[in-house]
Write a structure and sequence with these properties.
By secondary structure, the chain is α/β, with parallel strands linked by helices. Helix content is about 30%, strand content about 10%. It is globular, with a radius of gyration of 20 Å.
């Protein structure tokens, strides 16, 4: 066996050893804090989803699918956001934001609504991502 040394066997390089190529590049889009208003629900967010770049492999919504102060965590707000995201041509992964659960007057209601409309949302598409999920709502995920 060889003994560890304080010097690496090869010096670090100033640039990556391989350049990204088409088969190593992943293109995805991220959206958050929408839809909050009628205009976002009826126009802006549907247009964003419908015109998502053709290069996209997936979309991640990082939360706040409704505005708790105005929408009061009512079911219609979750349902509309779900319907809009469901229009996507690529898989959509959804994380809850504070407005979706924690800012609701009744947190259990927020959890129920999020679970009903967004839990494992990506499974509405046929994809090959091998996810690891965790959290009480299966809300956190990772994949390579």
């Amino acid at each position: 066996t060889s003994r560890p040394t304080h010097r690496p066997t090869q010096p670090p390089t100033d640039s990556p050893t391989t350049s990204p190529t088409l088969d190593t590049t992943t293109v995805f889009y991220v959206i958050a804090d929408a839809p909050y208003s009628d205009d976002e629900r009826e126009n802006i967010m549907p247009r964003q989803i419908d015109t998502l770049g053709k290069d996209a492999e997936f979309l991640v919504h990082v939360g706040d699918l409704e505005y708790a102060i105005e929408d009061r965590c009512e079911e219609w707000a979750y349902e509309i956001a779900s319907d809009i995201l469901n229009r996507s041509q690529v898989p959509v992964f959804v994380l809850p934001g504070d407005n979706d659960i924690n800012d609701c007057d009744d947190i259990e209601h927020g959890e129920y609504m999020w679970r009903k409309y967004f839990r494992k949302f990506d499974q509405r598409w046929d994809h090959d991502f091998e996810l690891t999920r965790w959290g009480n709502l299966d809300e956190s995920f990772s994949f390579l």
